[in-house]
Write a structure and sequence with these properties.
Layout lengths: L2 E6 L2 E6 L25 E3 L18 H4 L35 E6 L2 H9 L21 E5 H9 L21 H6 L4
Length: 184
């Protein structure tokens, strides 16, 4: 097997055997299937002498397209302890494979954890098989925008770190809603 570094956005991940781990494999940061034309996926050969066309190159992207906060500034990190984000890089960035749109950086509360558990998504129980430590009140986590909106409508929306919340959240909630729940 050859070692390759797979590039997902701005993260570089080392994988043995190429870019063939299935989406959702959470043994480490997810590595998704690479297809030409995907905006947020690519593969660059970093360690071997294999031909450059083994994986298509990542198309050029700008920070404005994928790494901007709801404040219009570069996206700040959300949390490295616990390590959050769809790509588990500490950031609430997103891409085509992130169907849940994990773009809202929130400091979870006990009320929110109970609410999301009641909806079938238990975020407080550790799941070591997925390298998930379980969350406790005060932990920052990249939440699905629609779950945050659902919590807002139920009156249990957790506070939000605006500088670490991806601009993509604005497709599901308003800036005013987020600002009303900004971390102080």
């Amino acid at each position: 097997m050859r070692a390759r570094s797979c590039v997902l956005g701005l993260s570089i991940l080392l994988v043995l055997g190429g870019c063939d781990r299935p989406p959702g494999d959470v043994a480490g940061p997810p590595i998704v299937e690479v297809r030409a034309g995907d905006v947020d996926r690519g593969c660059a050969l970093g360690l071997g002498d294999a031909a450059e066309d083994a994986c298509p190159a990542e198309p050029a992207r700008t920070a404005v397209e994928v790494d901007t906060s709801v404040l219009g500034e570069p996206l700040a990190p959300c949390s490295l302890a616990p390590r959050t984000g769809y790509f588990r890089d500490g950031s609430c960035r997103t891409g085509p494979s992130d169907t849940g749109r994990h773009v809202v950086c929130a400091a979870v509360t006990e009320q929110f954890l109970e609410f999301t558990r009641s909806r079938g998504n238990d975020l407080s129980t550790p799941a070591p098989e997925f390298s998930f430590p379980g969350l406790k009140p005060g932990d920052r986590w990249c939440l699905c925008a629609l779950r945050w909106r659902e919590a807002l409508e139920a009156g249990v929306a957790p506070p939000v770190a605006l500088a670490a919340t991806h601009s993509g959240a604005l497709r599901h909630v308003t800036r005013a809603q987020l600002e009303a729940h900004a971390l102080r």
